[in-house]
Request: fold
Amino acid sequence: MVLGGWLALLASFANPADAPFYQGKRITVLINFTAGGPTDIEGRIVARHLAKHIPGTPRIVVKNMPGAGGIAGTNYMGEVARPDGLTVAFFGPPLTQQLLQDSGLRVDLSEFVWLGGIGQPLVCYIRKDVGSGIDGAEDLLGLDEFKAGGIRPTTSTDLRLRMALELLGAKYRYVSGYRGIANVVAGIMQNEVQYSCATILSFHQIIEPNLIRPGVAATLWYFPTTDADGEQVRDTRLEGIPTFVDVYEMLKGSKPEGELYEALRLINNYSVTMQRAAFVPAGTPDEAVGALRRAWEALPRDEGFVAEYTRLVKAPPDMVQAAAVQAHVAAVHGTAPDTVAVIKRFLGGQ
Reply:
């Protein structure tokens, strides 16, 4: 055999081993909330840009698996999804359900292999025609009663929207069972419920154009993170909107305090720091995990991704990398038992 033939034969044996892990493969990005909602919108943006940063440029498809406040998809990732690197979760992670040992959550989030996350605050709003009418937060405590719409009592969104009202002493009735934030917004538009909260993406893309600008609803407040001293870390993307603490001071004459407020701060910091996150099942091959984590690290430098995300959210994405996300999830298990007890008492009394 001539030299060229030997080289070709050797190359035919070498190429499969040298090929990237994802060469010729397809990744399914699983989203744990309904199509058209904020988690879905962000997940599809990530999916559109992630593949070009993965060696082998795999094809990516998106599948929604909503249910139980994000728990259905989470259980699937822990119990059914194969650890082959071909199923990647992009979730609103059920951290508070883990914290509260929600009976529906059958898996331990800390056992997943986390790839990265995206931070995002929560904005609350209310229909202006509720009761005798309301123009803003200054009128909230004058209402006889209104309905607060949510998904599942143990979700971070529902806990925060309810704890805020409880701290203020507002008269409300809680209605849960919506399959996702998009469904909650539909309920607001149909006047089934009048008050709720949503992430900044939902606020800018759905709530502002359909409820705020037409004068149907008024913005109330947003929940910023707080530092170790309890001081607010204001979000420049929401300039002009008061924080919950601002509103509380306006209505009550002092800053909020006490065990319920401290529980609200804790849940909010967990959630705002990592509102969305991506992970794969335990046991996923190291080569796949490494490729996916490096692709996530590349997204903040991807001009196309940043431009598309910024157009929707009106600010660049607050990207969190794998090590920080993994530590964040692990920290949930270290939450003080007294704080968990406060939250459980709150849930038990509603």
Remarks:
- Residues 96 and 156 are 6 Å apart (CA to CA).
- The two ends are 82 Å apart (CA to CA).
- Residues 6-14 have pLDDT under 50 and may be disordered.
- The chain is about 45% helix and 20% strand.
